[in-house]
Amino acid sequence: MKTILFSNILSFFFIIILFSATTIFASKPEESSFVIHEKEAMKEDKECRNPISCFSTAIFYMEEGRREKGLLLLKKIELLYPFTTWKTRAAYIQGRELLRAGSPESLLYLEEAMALTSIRDYVLLDLAMAYRLADKNEEALALYSRLLDEYGESLLREKALFERSMALIDAANCLAAIKQLEDFIEEFPGSEFVPDAMLNMIQCAIKSNREAEINYSIKKLRTFYPILPHDKEEEANEILSTISDAKVAALAFSKEERYERSKAFYKHGMFKQAVDSLGPLSTMKDGSVIYFAAKALFRARKYSEARFMLRKLFILKNEGEHISAILDGYRLLARIGRRTGNGALINEAERALNELAPAGKQRGMVLLYRGGDYEDRKRYNKALTIYRTIFSEIESSNIVANALWRSAWIRYRMGKYKAAMRDFASYPKKFPNGYRYSDFLYWRGRCEEKLGKRKKAKATYRKIVERGGAGYYNYAALERLDKISRKKKKAKKGVPLNDVKKKAALLEIMPPQITAERAYRAAEELLILGQKKEAVSELEVLAKKYAKNELFLIKIIGLIYRSGEFHKTYMIVQNYFSHIYGGAWKDAPYEIKTLAFPLPVVSYVEKRQPSGSADPYLVAAVMREESAFDPMALSPAGAMGLMQIMPETGKYLAKKYKKRPFHKDHLFDPDTSIRLGGLYLGQLKRRFKGDIVYTIASYNAGPTAVARWVKKNRMEKDEFIETIPYNETRAYTKRVLRSYSQYLKLAGKEIPDLF
Predict the structure, then answer these.
(1) Which residues have C-beta within 8 Å of that of residue 689, sequence separation ≥ 6?
(2) Low pLDDT (below 50) residues in the chain
């Protein structure tokens, strides 16, 4: 897999090493053995004018998959700079490569690397594994214990505990291994190593003839991990084949274990298996379990079976302990009615909830379903009556806001702009700090335009703009102001990626309080060594610690950004700075804006996209909203990679644009995903004659559906967006338009007229 590369050659050594050869999406090079000879290493003389550039170039080669060439440079550092930290770093990288190749020679290099004190816990873990490869299990166990004792807060504790248990198995000490594996599973139940731990427990228990541990491990594995990766599933089946069928069958699940197993299937989208795992449904008496079964059947689109299950739940209506499940059950019944067009089910649910919890959110949601059902049948007055009921009887402000929105939209589409304007104006008055303030205010402005009140509309749009948000309606309000003023938009001067001021702001020296932290020192060293994933994990610890110190947090996230880990950057910004997308965006530091919308992604797309692709700023915006810059993203529906392309679509595009051979796993490769996604966006844009709104909507919902909506509803673009029948596509279109406009603004580009 290729990497996305950025180089910033700066003057002082830390910045050179930390940021020259950084990647957005790091890939794991293919494993290969290697042998380095001193004479060969001395041939590479141009890259080694100094140890800094030599090491930096070596890391670059290795990240690019050219490991042999990188290792030659590391050997050269060892020869030319024998008494420096660079030699120690070179030894560590060589030791890790030898360890990857399964060579016991790694011991010598890793022992030298123990001098890297800021990451000694990492070196200890690698050294322990090297001793295991050399069949020196006692020494390995001693190192694992040292790591756990001396570095109790280390992020490597989980892996060290697991590997220590494996070392005990290597040493044929199964009894101790079983005990430590049990402790490991209890401490880290969600660890990726748990299935391995359980399989090894079973094997050890079989060898030791310990029936209790065999039973415990098998039940635990089948309960919490019924779905294993293919290789682990084969291993599990092989182990279970050595145990008699009678013994396996005797491991009956308790009700609690069946429920946990069912939840594991549900989590993986295997809804039928989730229901089957619950056991005899006819004997169920637990309301929460019955509701769970009905929900799984609903997700499996088995609506009749789900209704039957809900009938069993409603029998328990008079038993107070099940009331929460029953309330949710009636809401689910109404959803079934909405999905199947059965209004009687919606009415039944509403009547029951009016009796059980008349002001509750479940009844509010059911009333929204009922109003939507009337709208579908064009019985608008009936729908308005339902929405008025919500205003007067339901406590949830979010549900009231939704009802108010639907009511206003009915009137708007019927051409009753005065009445619609009153509805749209009521939310900002009632909830001046409400999360939908700009939504309602924008459509109040549109009503004012329809009524010919252009000055009032301008004043309304300015209120949205003055709040300074970064959302879709802020962008839409600017569009309307330009249309009313009949002025051509001028691009605001952005700050180019290589601007000196921006670079100085991003690379400002860290405060001493941060640099004194063990996690920072470890991250600093790991970034120099090219171990970005591990470095980012350390920086995430710091981000959590300084979550309430905005200045420190920006600097920590900035270091993750400069490492090229944009997915992690995005997730941390969303976690700690989601508030800036509202009114705080206007005054937010430029650094935060570039962390939220990284321009290097645009540069990468621009340099590599083939002809026929969409605008690179649009590709970056789609990438941000589709995958949050995660090249390994996999949706529940099966969409893959940065641009979230379905395998069948990828196969079609690869054939159309002559990229052969194609395998669906190619969609996890950043270059492939961006190329195919960009070409597909370009194809959609041409189909819709350059219309960005239709292009974005069709990327999510498909061009056939969008063409049908366009034909059915000839209206202005902002009206079209609000009437998209798929909730997901409607929200998606708004998000991508928001991101597209922000990318263009940050880059100082002109934003095209889209409405």
Answers:
(1) none
(2) 1-45, 491-507
